[in-house]
Design a protein that fits this description.
4 helices, OB fold (Dihydrolipoamide Acetyltransferase, E2P), three-stranded antiparallel β-sheet
Length: 122
Amino acid sequence: MATLYSKDHVWIRKEETGARIGLSDFAQSELGEIVFVEAPAKGAEMTKGEPICSIDALKSTSDVYAPISGKVLEVNSRLAENNARIINSDPLGEGWICVMSIDDEAQLDELLSEEQYRQYVS
């Protein structure tokens, strides 16, 4: 599946077991150097639009909002290993935040395509 984006600058990719979620390249560049991520708890139930984690950058602290509703199935352990800067270096790859179940597939239809997101941030 293609990468989809929320207007809150979160990307999502549907996978066999759920949806992998991370911070967009645009958002990480706006935040600057990321120094800490308070990752979501594995097993936590999330509702679309509520904060799933907090990101501390040298300039500011920002919440990351759930693009869908679901349960946190997996958390990127590399972020907890004092390696939050991986979001800056590889936001769409190794810098993912978590994998969530998808409670409502229709919520995916509300997200932006890569092209729509590019236009949104330009």
